[in-house]
Write a structure and sequence with these properties.
Structural class: alpha+beta
Helix content: 25-40%
CATH architecture of the largest domain: 3-Layer(aba) Sandwich
CATH class of the largest domain: Alpha Beta
Number of domains: 2
Order of helices and strands: HEEEEEEEEEHEHEEHEEEHEHEHE
Distance between the termini: 88 Å
Length: about 350
Amino acid sequence: MWMLLLLIVVAGLFILERRSMKNIFLGISYDIQPSRSMVEVDEEFFLESTITNSKGIPITSLQTGEFMPKEIAFSDKRNQLTTIQSGIAMVSNAYVMPRKNLVRRIRVSLPRRGRYHFHGATLTAGSLLGLSTKEENVRFIREVILPPKPFQSVELEKMLATYLGDVSVTRFILEDPILTVGFREYTGREPMRSISWKQTATVGKLMVKNYDHTLDLTVTVILNVNTLNQNYKESFETLFSMTRSVCEFLETMKTPYRFVTNVTTNNDINHKSVIPDGLGGSHLATVMELLARATYNYYDNFVEMIAKVARGAEQGRSHILLTPEVPQEVEPFLRKLRARTGREILILTPETKQG
């Protein structure tokens, strides 16, 4: 009698064990989302990992191996990590109640410019009695991009300030009447040529023209990555950082700018070789994303790119060129660019001092 009862119990457990493994992943889902799509180098951000159990029974044994970039750094050093072919996997065990979500927030950071992918996870579910397991790979791509660090250089700031200042001084000397934004009383320090005799006659006292010397100042920022320099990788990273700082300086000065480059990006479907004139957070973010995705390859050589810029250049526009070097073949097109714009070109190379 007892033997028969024992056999019935064993048979029942065997049936439950088999049934628990059938469609074990039905109603179970996994996802991971970064708290931000663009972060700074070494800046901490969160990964929000979610396991959803939409079934009416609990998940008693579920192991997740979440795929992470090999460069990632965790704030919590207790995380269990294992090396895999595509990077590393963070391994953890979970128990999820029926029709509930298990949400975990992981604080992480990344060390270098570029784009990083989170490819999903391997889920390993255990049977009701824990006698067997079954695996399922959940695949997707969640992306985080990191723009280059700013180029910290007092010398670079001085060069930019001097260059833009020279443009303003030149405009003042030319006294373009379009830039007259009003009139003010003569103080004795202004040159006689700035006196508005018509306004003086109207008001009855000496009045001078009031200029906004940067009202229509526009700049084209050019980034070249075509070079024979053998240390090109280090040079390019320096140039990417310098480019960011140049654009941020122009933002600070409220100076609209266009961005032109021959660098290829690692999402060439949405590649932009020219970002039109603009100013503000969204404009800068577009440039930052391009710099984050920039590779070390080019699609137009230096000469071809400058030739295109020179052909389309308009009078009065200023140009800032960032390049590893300036070969002789480019010089004729730079001269043409100066002639068409009436402006000098500010050329910046990786040799600009940092600090």
